[in-house]
Please model this.
Amino acid sequence: MTENAPKRPPRGVRVELDGDGHLADGRCWSPDIARQLALADGIELEKGHWWLIEFVREYHERYGNPPLMRTLVAASKQLDPENGGSRWLYRLFPDGPVRLACKYGGLPKPDWCL
Model:
């Protein structure tokens, strides 16, 4: 889905999305909604995606905001010293690891994202 494409809820699930395609009410988040949002963007969520989504959700719950990219890079390298890092994170979500992990994780778009 391109940035200018209309934002619509996943097929078969009625949820309200904001102007950036994030859930308007994060309390209605579920793994199934995450899968459907990602599929609408052409992404099939796999193990690495889920690690990133859960990391961002837990970080947000603890600190009230999503992690910065450098925090994700450090955490991914602890998870897998040989394969973690920014390149791996961008292979998971090429259009922005933090932003998309927030989108699929039921969190608002980070204030500092363009």
Observations:
- The two ends are 17 Å apart (CA to CA).
- Residues 47-63 form the longest helix (17 residues).
